């Protein structure tokens, strides 16, 4: 442990989420070369490679996978201890760590503001959750509550209020035949490969975001998979398939001229839910959930 740097561990954890040095650097607010430097330093301390580097992606070695599984809970516990100490030092009512996927819409922003107003002694910290890992931060105790796309069927997690029901949109290349349509029906999805999501997200959750069949039972072709929203948008722009996403995320991405967003009819609406772990962070998570309901 001599000389071990916490920044090296953080770089490894983020790289394990993104599997891409450039995106890991963006999340850490450092250059791609700095991420590589931190990883090399960590691998030097351990004495073996943790990541296999390719020209486009990074993959964990077997040792890297094992190290990741052991490091995540330890790092989560360390962060929780630091947060608790900070709250105690401030004489405050603690810290509420909220994870979120995609964008913070108006409903969520109002709920956060209302919580802070009603609980002035509690510090709210916001953390973006990777698209491909909606529940990992909760399992690792890195956040107290998470606002995620449903469904959420994890046995050790509690699903609180749901909100932000929105029609789904299909992101396609401007060159795709659907790009000129005013609307696409769910049955027409059988004519376009859907870009899926890879990563630690449960299979049922990934199928919900990129279904295998239309409501009428027609098979939907499988397209390539993405680990992040940006990667999915890139695949759609390249004409590799279409990607389903909620309207608010589509509107947030609307400035991207390389992708066209077309409304889809006949699919269930996308729904956000507030989720928390059944064994920790329960009190503040429930208090925040009440604000979500009040702002509904």
Automatic annotation (TrEMBL):
GO cellular component, one term: protein-DNA complex
Superkingdom: Bacteria
Ranges of residues in domain HTH lysR-type: 4-61
Keywords, sorted A to Z: DNA-binding, Transcription, Transcription regulation
PROSITE patterns from the UniProt entry: HTH_LYSR (PS50931)
GO MF, one annotated term: DNA binding
InterPro entries according to UniProt: LysR_HTH_N, LysR_subst-bd, WH-like_DNA-bd_sf, WH_DNA-bd_sf
Pfam families membership: HTH_1, LysR_substrate
SUPFAM superfamilies assigned: Periplasmic binding protein-like II, Winged helix' DNA-binding domain
Membership in a protein family: Belongs to the LysR transcriptional regulatory family.
Protein's UniProt name: DNA-binding transcriptional regulator, LysR family
């Amino acid at each position: 442990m001599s000389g071990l740097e916490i920044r090296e561990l953080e770089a490894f954890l983020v790289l394990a989420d993104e599997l891409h040095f450039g995106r890991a650097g963006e999340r850490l607010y450092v250059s791609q070369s700095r991420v590589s430097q931190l990883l090399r330093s960590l691998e030097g301390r351990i004495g073996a490679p943790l990541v296999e580097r390719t020209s486009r992606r990074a993959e964990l070695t077997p040792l890297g996978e094992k190290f990741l599984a052991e490091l995540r809970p330890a790092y989560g516990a360390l962060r929780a201890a630091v947060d608790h100490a900070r709250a105690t030092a401030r004489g405050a009512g603690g810290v509420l760590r909220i994870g979120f996927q995609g964008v913070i819409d108006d409903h969520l922003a109002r709920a956060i503001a209302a919580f802070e107003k009603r609980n002035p002694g509690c510090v709210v910290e916001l953390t973006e959750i990777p698209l491909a890992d909606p529940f990992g931060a909760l399992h690792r105790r890195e956040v107290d509550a998470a606002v995620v796309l449903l469904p959420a069927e994890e046995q050790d997690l509690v699903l609180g209020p749901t909100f932000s029901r929105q029609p789904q949109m299909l992101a396609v290349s401007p060159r795709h035949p659907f790009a000129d349509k005013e609307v696409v029906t769910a049955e027409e999805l059988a004519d376009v490969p859907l870009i899926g999501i890879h990563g630690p997200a449960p299979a049922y959750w990934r199928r919900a975001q990129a279904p295998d069949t239309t409501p009428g039972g027609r098979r939907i072709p499988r397209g390539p998979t993405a680990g992040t929203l940006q990667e999915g948008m890139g695949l759609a722009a390249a004409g590799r398939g279409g990607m389903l996403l909620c309207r608010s995320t589509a509107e947030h991405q609307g400035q991207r001229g390389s992708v066209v967003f077309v409304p889809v009819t006949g699919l269930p609406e996308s729904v956000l839910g507030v989720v928390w772990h059944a064994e920790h962070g329960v009190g503040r998570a429930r208090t925040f959930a009440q604000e979500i309901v009040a702002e509904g």
